[in-house]
Design goal:
two-stranded antiparallel sheet, four-stranded mixed β-sheet, alpha+beta
């Protein structure tokens, strides 16, 4: 398959009959310029790295492909400075992933571990967007502290939700927050960051499903629409996206406003009866196994008991918990996350052990360890500048 030179990165789409990059989009016939995706290449590199370390007969070939992929290609610090000067809705800000609670951080981890990205790069992504009126279009006004790591000033912003403070993702979905931790022991390396935020994310998902929307079930993440097609589901209140990732097909959203800024007064939260046609996906509950094992297993057992969602092939991809319509499909991505979560739970973190080599740990762990999120009970918040000592990259 043709790759981008000199980065060794793979293009996003190929003609399956020729192996060549697509230049025409098959459904419409429209011209298509081949593109590269850091997140898709990041997950490909993750798989290659695992194979290299655990599948002896393919180790050499997988390792050669992995070594050839250079993630420095994506590093654009000048563009990042522009992005941080504008709201992402502007034309100047259309190129890059820019939030840390995202499945895209796996590409950063790999690039740093390989020595292709500087350690300071990890602190270039937003924890939350700023709390100024220039950014009042976001879902919720954050509360935050400013800290400095590796010479980079970071706004450690968090959203208040259901009695806690947590660092939000873009859409409030489960796999944005928890997919990378299938491979990287983030809670062990980040006792003041991910160890706090991951359980709070799971707690927020459970709260939304059982209390806020009162579906009786929980687990919201991009999945197949039970009635057909695909969309991004999430918990709107823990996502920065102003348009929200709703947990239901009827798009019930919250708007907590942005006090002190024009035209951003909060709206009353929807009542539980407003949440109609809620969609739950089992893979989200499997991702929560590490953080809330009893709650996750109970949730999955209830889904199996109450809906025709479990077959000889495992869980179907999603269910409309109000109409009992179940997806006809098993999505490879979501089944992969289920199997990865089970592998870690049943075989002593087998995927983490296969992924984290001593070199990866030595290079990456100090970067994650130094950070302190502004997550936790609201009473523990600060609003001051704080410098955190760290070696320069």
């Amino acid at each position: 398959m043709e790759r981008h030179e000199p980065s060794g990165q793979f293009f996003n789409w190929y003609d399956h009959t020729t192996g060549e990059p697509l230049t025409v989009w098959p459904p419409s016939g429209e011209p298509l310029t081949p593109i590269l995706s850091s997140v898709d290449n990041g997950w490909l590199a993750t798989a290659l790295h695992l194979v290299r370390n655990r599948v002896s007969e393919l180790s050499e070939r997988a390792g050669a492909l992995f070594d050839r992929m250079n993630f420095r290609f994506y590093y654009q610090p000048e563009v990042n400075r522009i992005l941080r000067s504008y709201a992402p809705s502007t034309d100047e800000a259309g190129c890059c992933y820019d939030t840390i609670v995202s499945e895209t951080r796996i590409a950063s981890y790999i690039g740093i571990a390989k020595g292709e990205l500087p350690r300071r790069h990890y602190f270039g992504a937003w924890r939350s967007f700023p709390k100024t009126c220039d950014w009042s279009w976001q879902e919720t006004k954050p509360v935050g502290v400013h800290r400095t790591y590796y010479g980079v000033k970071v706004f450690e912003g968090a959203y208040r939700y259901a009695g806690v403070r947590l660092v939000p993702s873009w859409g409030g979905s489960m796999f944005e927050a928890l997919m990378p931790t299938l491979f990287v022991p983030e809670e062990q390396w980040g006792p003041r960051s991910w160890a706090l935020n991951h359980p709070l994310t799971v707690q927020a998902q459970i709260h939304h499903g059982l209390e806020e929307a009162q579906y009786g079930y929980w687990g919201f993440s991009p999945a197949n629409i039970p009635e057909g097609d695909y969309r991004a589901y999430g918990v709107d209140g823990i996502g920065m996206n102003p348009d929200g990732y709703a947990s239901n097909n009827d798009n019930t959203f919250v708007d907590h406003g942005f006090p002190g800024c024009p035209d951003r007064e909060p709206l009353p939260d929807p009542l539980p009866e407003a949440y109609t046609n809620g969609v739950v996906t089992p893979h989200a509950a499997f991702l929560a196994l590490r953080w809330a094992p009893e709650a996750a297993l109970e949730n999955l057992a209830n889904l199996e008991h109450d809906f025709d969602i479990y077959t000889e092939w495992g869980f179907r991809d999603s269910v409309n918990v109000n109409t009992a319509v179940v997806s006809d499909y098993y999505l490879a991505l979501d089944q992969g996350m289920i199997m990865a979560a089970l592998g870690n739970a049943l075989a002593q973190d087998m995927l983490r052990k296969a992924f984290v080599t001593p070199e990866f740990k030595r290079t990456l762990r100090p970067v994650i360890t130094v950070e302190a999120f502004n997550a936790g009970p609201p009473s523990h918040g600060y609003d001051t500048w704080m410098n955190v000592s760290a070696a320069q990259p």
